[in-house]
Amino acid sequence: MSVEIPAGAATAAPRDTVYTASVRVSGGRGGRAESLTGSFRATLTRPAERGPDAPGTDPEELFAAGYAACFDSALAAVGRRERITLGPTEVTASVSLGTTDGGGYAIAVLLAVSAPSCPRADLERAVAAAHLLCPYSNAVRGNTPVTIRVDGQD
Fold first, then answer.
1. Cα(111)–Cα(88) distance, integer angstroms
2. How far apart are CA 59 and CA 57, in angstroms?
3. Positions of the region Disordered (predicted)?
4. Which of 8, 40, 121, 134 is most buried, with most CB under 10 Å away?
5. Checking DSSP bridges between strand 90-99 and strand 105-119, what pairing results, if any?
6. How far is CA 96 from each of CA 19, 61, 67, 74, 145, rounded to the nearest angstrom?
């Protein structure tokens, strides 16, 4: 059975696919994840069971890593396109999992963007453009709160 969920008004479906990543998970949040290429393997651990001896990661950390990497790349692309000298950049994504009023779960994202040698106004302009370019930002826009903090040269 195949069910396609149409893109909402705030999102656009890709016109041309340039890459597809496939990861198989067994055991849910307490299981294992492995890419179909075999290049990625991870033990998954529920956050509530995480301790100093608990191996693994969780879906929120994996999403945070993907979002931070993608946003940093989008920021670099904007810098090149707009001729903004960003200097070294760092993006930290914090993904929070919480409950909803309806009894389900939802996430919220905080992106902390740092470019200490970039003038703050230039960095803010680049971050705004990167937020429109980044596929992760586009995927969550309209259904997941994203807060962005910028730390540049004052």
1. 16
2. 7
3. 27-57
4. 134
5. antiparallel
6. 27, 10, 13, 22, 10
Please name the amino acid found at residue 81.
R
C-alpha to C-alpha distance for 142 and 76, rounded to whole angstroms: 24
Mean pLDDT split into 10-residue runs, the chain, 154 residues: 46 80 95 95 87 84 97 98 96 96 94 95 96 95 94 76
Tell which residue, 46, 152, 39, has the closest CA to residue 89.
152
Q: Which tokens belong to 36?
A: 């179909």
- Tell me the C-alpha distance between 136 and 67, whole Å: 6
As given in the structure block, the two tokens for residue 121 are 């106004």
Question: By CB neighbour count within 10 A (0-12 exposed, 13-18 middle, 19+ buried), where does 113 fall?
Answer: buried
CATH placement of domain 59-153:
3.30.300.20
| Token representation of residue 74 | 């989008």
